[in-house]
Fold:
Amino acid sequence: MKSKTIISIIGGGSIYTPELVSLLIRNTDVLGNIELRLMDIDESRLQTVGVFCERMIQKNNSPIDISYYSEYKNAVFEADYVLIQFRVGGGEARIKDEKLGRKYKIPFVETVSVCGFATFLRTYYQMEQLVENILLYAPDAWVMNFANPAGMLTEALYVLGLQKIVGVCNASIKLLDFLSNKFKTTDIQLNWRGLNHFTITDGIFINGKNMLQNLLENLKDYEDSSIPFPADLLQSIEMLPNQHYQYYILQRA
Structure:
């Protein structure tokens, strides 16, 4: 049995890394000792985020050790889990992608549509290199893709040879947080259906009872960022669309 769980984050300088560290801190009773490897080509950003995460870990006295890397090989070597969350080209490239959507009057969000496809084309070459290293140095690792466009890239990772690959999105976590506050319980199960950010929730189960109708009857317009829609729309379709649908069905977006 391994004495520690090795988790590699490709794109460790991302602002999402502290959110992940917070989650790990709450679950060290399950994972045990953790070696968290943060890999990023932006050293300044990596150090800034890393130091912040170290302070979180120290404050909670959690059994998590952080190390830093700038290359794929050492970052993924014998890892149990690899989380991909980089954005090739950074914020400037994202702005260019989204201007494509604006230019052609197509909803512009980096996960889908023309912007997502542009992001995919720019990111694919890096995914090829990363997969090559994972297959060589961490062939048994579970790989989780958080990089956008999540659906296209996750499929590409599978085609490139990764068998243990999962596409992830934090929209479900945001919705669960909202529902936990709404119903005053964390014991909630969702019927979450669809692909990438084109998903819907058509069941909210608490103690085996579907509470969706109860929620819909008591919703306010745009009540939470996880469901940024008018209440009458949600009541009419009797489901909760993924927050990214707002770019397609709401003029206000």
Q: What stands out?
A: The CA atoms of residues 131 and 160 lie 7 Å apart. The chain has a mean pLDDT of 91.
